[in-house]
């Protein structure tokens, strides 16, 4: 009770059992001239007529605070966080089975003897458990029990402050209490300085600048997923290291980011350690450490020891079609070389030089890229779709086979093809065997094209027809239709995919006998079904879909 001192070495009464070593009273002022125990708040004194029923007092609940404490240094706590702790009757914090709490140590200067302390001890952290629901089941039960303990205080009218390292809503344990309690009680979440911000500050390295993208990644992801995320972003922070460190390090190496990565341990705390991540002993890494891949703009890379050419496919349209591997190659490049239309799909990055050219100078473009690489530059040759399908990979590799360029490293990175993109929009017309043919007679005679069309049609293959027409080539589609009708029924489904993935996308399904060459231009791809390809309208006259069965009749 607040009005009478406790015996030495004991705490005041609380109304609910405290953890061993916790304190007692609520810390909220009692009514003047009255005393109360923590679990039995008294009603305001009111006058009433003897024998009459006293008016029912409305139940008064406490307030819940989720208090962000910052990264470790108590001086980095906000004023609001300190005030919330001072206003609280109950201070709760999570800890492992050893009983120590970093959150409590940060807040220690603001704790008072009369605070009730609720230590929320995890039953498991990384060890095994015999709980019937496994690790997740054990934690879910723990969160329910911890929330019930806090709810008992809130129902008794006490204000509860749940301490959280960093920010409560950033990978914080407080979130599990919030999901279970915030809809039932008045709640305020007080943000804190995150470990991400602290790590960058201690490294003295900007995280991101201009249009750079920062990705925050939990180190608990599978190694391949980590590598893909790291490859696809500009800058990154990987949280939750400790036992995950070997996989994180391997993912950084796979994605080509290891040389850039920095390590920060216990930022702003005693025992802080920073340095190149590649130099860190995996056995020395605690959970409270992060990997930082900082801004590429603010932290320029050293010149490449050796140049290279990466031939990349951007898919049929914009950024949604890029693979993480392609994103990484584009970000790493010093020089971008390509047809101007395709270069325009690539985001502009400071420090890169772009070399756009016409679509009819593939050989010259390839040799130019190889010359740049021979001078030590990292070059990305940008191609639409997949670079190995009627695109730039062949031109680059042909030039790279010359004696002058044999020592220049060349990589080819795949992209989503126009055929795959159009097929997915229409359904699954490429579900069985198919052939890919270009109708352009600029690099091969029409007689060769016609022979291949007849052979593929006679074999009953679905056909993906690239480069069907242009301003100077207007008759090939009509001629191809005539050849195919020698082997296909007039009602064979044909998919016309134009600018798939782009702003002018259109996907039409027509019949081979009705195919109008006027509907086709250089930005269109044709998918001509086999004898087994089906076309169906789903629903009440709804969307028409096309697919080719995977089984072929005996």
Keywords:
single chain, about 550 residues, alpha/beta, 5-stranded parallel β-sheet, 5-stranded mixed β-sheet, 14 helices, 23 strands, disordered N terminus
Question: What can you see in these coordinates?
Answer:
It is built from 14 helices and 23 strands. By secondary structure, it is α/β, with parallel strands linked by helices. Helix 6 packs across helix 7, helix 6 packs across helix 8 and helix 10 packs across helix 11. The chain starts with 63 loop residues before the first strand and ends in a 7-residue tail after the last strand.
**Quaternary structure annotation:** single chain
Query: Structural class from helices and strands?
Result: alpha/beta
First-residue to last-residue Cα separation:
90 Å
- Estimated helix fraction: 25-40%
Sheet bearing the most strands, described?
5 strands, parallel
Number of strands: 23
Q: What topology, given as strand order, has the largest sheet?
A: 3-2-4-1-5
Average pLDDT confidence is: 87
Low-pLDDT parts are: 1-52
Question: What is the approximate shape?
Answer: elongated
What is the gyration radius calculated from CA atoms?
34 Å
Q: How much beta, percentage-wise?
A: 15-25%
Discrete helix count: 14
